[in-house]
Write a structure and sequence with these properties.
With 180 residues, the chain is mainly alpha-helical. It has helices at residues 6-9, 12-19, 24-37, 45-51, 59-69, 77-87, 95-107, 110-119, 125-138, 146-155, 160-179.
Length: 180
């Protein structure tokens, strides 16, 4: 990623102090920057875990930072599961697909990916509209879901735009595979 450099990674101690700080504003800056740094920000995970109160406010920042750190954020999985249990039925905010996306990025579990892709066809509030871009965001990481995506398309229940986006997504994956 363009932003990753030793200078950015060397900012981690400062970002961790911001995470441990008293204001949401400082935590937000830290979480956004940690998400950009990604896997190299693994040292921030204990601080993310300690400071996230598993409440609904600002949940997207906490979830995204853990997700983009990836497998090194395994310590955050119990919090993500607790959050999913507590707020997962909030279809208006797309909580379930966001948590499934984070869990998949961390655990690489086929079950998490299947559940995330399955949300695309549910039509439950924001869940379906949030799940699609999250699957697209996974890019080649979602290759294992291609058969499930093809099944969704074949069922014919999808909105035309969603079907088209999924077809384009599969095409991009096939194109990437042929280039490699």
């Amino acid at each position: 990623m363009l932003f990753r450099s030793s200078a950015v990674v060397s900012a981690l101690p400062t970002l961790i102090r911001l995470l441990d700080g008293p204001t949401w504003e400082s935590q937000q800056v830290a979480l956004e920057t940690i998400a950009v740094i990604g896997p190299e920000a693994v040292s921030a995970v204990p601080h993310i875990v300690r400071n996230w109160k598993v409440d609904f406010s600002h949940h997207v920042y906490w979830i995204e930072s853990l997700a983009l750190i990836g497998p090194g954020a395994a310590e955050g999985v119990p919090l993500l599961e607790e959050f999913r249990e507590k707020y997962g039925d909030n279809t208006a905010q797309g909580v379930e697909p966001r948590v499934l996306w984070a869990l998949y990025r961390i655990r690489r579990s086929p079950e998490d990916l299947r559940a995330l892709v399955g949300m695309i066809s549910t039509g439950q509030g924001a869940n379906a509209s949030v799940a699609l871009p999250l699957v697209e965001n996974l890019g080649a990481e979602a290759s294992a879901a291609v058969p499930q995506i093809r099944e969704l398309i074949a069922q014919g229940d999808l909105n035309v735009d969603v079907r088209h986006r999924l077809e384009l997504f599969i095409g991009r994956l096939a194109e990437q595979k042929s280039v490699e």
